[in-house]
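Hi support team,

I've been running sequence recovery on a batch of backbones for a student project. Most finish fine, but this one hangs at about 90% for roughly twenty minutes before it completes. I'm not sure whether the input is malformed or the queue is just slow. I've pasted the structure tokens below so you can try to reproduce it. Let me know if you need the job ID as well.

Thanks,
M.K.
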């Protein structure tokens, strides 16, 4: 019944009731007007629920055992020039997330290529490895002797002209990436983003781009962008800043007594820039945020007077993740360094690092240390000390990074060393 008919009917009923009250004679019932033919209601087809976008990392994670999840947290160092028993144990046995190589593992271009290819072969068709190296240039150089050396970061920081300095730093990053990729490495623990503010600090020294905040922030980040745009994962180090220390964390625990405000204004500035964008000179078409940050073994008393930064929840989760907003992969410096191992032991250090919020744990020396770290992590998950949700949070970040960067188990050919050295010559030309 339409609105007009409804109103008419109401009025008619009111009239009839009124008439019945005033007259005794029967009033003939009026003939009702015919109702209009109602239009058929449209048939509502059910709207299909949107198909969720597949999450490859989540799909991988769902099919993994606890042992495999724990394995992804570990980056193992091995001995020798071949994969050897410790490489077999780490890769095929423990299914670690990555392997890191040092000078002890490098003899020649052909040998290094065979080593990285051999590690990938042992990984089979499993989740690709992070193949890691500390390739900074200067005194921290892991390339074979046939490959020309790149200058230390500190020399780039001394380039007076800002434009020339930025061009040279970007070229440095691209050369580092080319060297790494040529031998099968996909993660370079570089650049150093520490500000060398303490002249007694010999462990950093010219590994830093300088002692000036602006120079280090721009030069270190432009180098990181060069590495990233060269197809290799860059890792900024050593958060929250190793430049104002006098103790080498390989042998003891450095202490930083600066306030949080001082850290935010100085030491943390390069890292804050990297979290926003490593491309500070021009514009980046792709995501240029730093994907990995390495946390150092440094006691920051203003945040945690008891634990080094690498094992500190206030530093890793409170400062780095919550305050600075970093949602990438956090890795520890080598847990076998005396700053940690002397006080905690390998197993406890590994568990505390995960509790603090770290994702990747570097165990760079001795297969026994790797076994101890893995055993302790498995026990912590089994007891509930590390929840499954916490474990999977880190594994998800690791898998997402590997997928985003397109890591594979494909081997590489022995590189053209002359071509690599021409890249170094180009960098030196810009630097000079």
């Amino acid at each position: 019944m339409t609105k007009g008919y409804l109103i008419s009917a109401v009025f008619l009923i009111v009239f009839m009731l009124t008439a019945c009250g005033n007259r005794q004679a029967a009033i003939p019932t009026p003939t009702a007007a015919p109702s209009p033919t109602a239009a058929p209601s449209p048939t509502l087809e059910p709207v299909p629920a949107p198909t969720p976008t597949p999450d490859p990392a989540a799909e991988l994670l769902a099919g993994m055992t606890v042992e495999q999840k724990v394995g992804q947290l570990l980056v193992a160092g091995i001995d020798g020039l071949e994969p050897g028993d410790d490489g077999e144990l780490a890769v095929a046995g423990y299914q670690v997330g990555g392997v890191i190589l040092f000078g002890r593992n490098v003899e020649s271009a052909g040998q290094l290529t065979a080593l990285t290819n051999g590690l990938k072969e042992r990984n089979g068709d499993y989740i690709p490895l992070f193949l890691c190296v500390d390739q900074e240039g200067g005194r921290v150089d892991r390339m074979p002797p046939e490959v020309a050396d790149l200058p230390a970061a500190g020399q780039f920081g001394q380039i007076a002209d800002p434009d020339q300095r930025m061009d040279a730093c970007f070229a440095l990053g691209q050369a580092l990436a080319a060297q790494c990729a040529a031998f099968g490495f996909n993660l370079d623990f570089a650049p150093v983003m520490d500000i060398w503010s303490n002249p007694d600090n010999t462990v950093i020294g010219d590994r830093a781009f300088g002692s000036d905040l602006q120079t280090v922030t721009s030069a270190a980040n432009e180098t990181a962008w060069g590495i990233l745009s060269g197809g290799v994962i860059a890792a900024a180090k050593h958060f929250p800043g190793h430049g104002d220390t006098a103790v080498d964390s390989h042998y003891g625990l450095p202490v930083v007594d600066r306030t949080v405000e001082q850290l935010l204004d100085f030491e943390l500035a390069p890292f804050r820039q990297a979290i926003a964008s490593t491309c500070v000179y021009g514009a980046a078409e792709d995501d240029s945020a730093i994907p990995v940050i390495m946390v150092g073994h440094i006691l920051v008393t203003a945040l945690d007077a008891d634990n080094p930064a690498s094992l500190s929840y206030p530093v890793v989760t409170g400062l780095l993740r919550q305050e600075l907003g970093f949602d990438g992969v956090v890795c520890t410096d080598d847990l076998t360094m005396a700053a940690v191992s002397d006080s905690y032991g390998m197993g406890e250090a590994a568990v505390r690092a995960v509790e603090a919020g770290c994702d990747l744990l570097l165990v760079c020396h001795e297969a026994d240390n790797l076994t101890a770290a893995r055993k302790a992590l498995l026990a912590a998950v089994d007891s509930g000390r590390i929840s499954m949700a916490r474990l999977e949070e880190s594994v998800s970040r690791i898998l997402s990074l590997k997928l985003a960067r397109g890591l594979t188990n494909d081997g590489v050919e022995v590189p053209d060393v002359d071509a690599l050295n021409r890249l170094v010559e180009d960098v030196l030309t810009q630097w000079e």
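--
Follow-up from support: It reproduced on our side and the slowdown came from queue contention, not your input. The first strand starts at residue 74 and ends at 77. No action needed from you.
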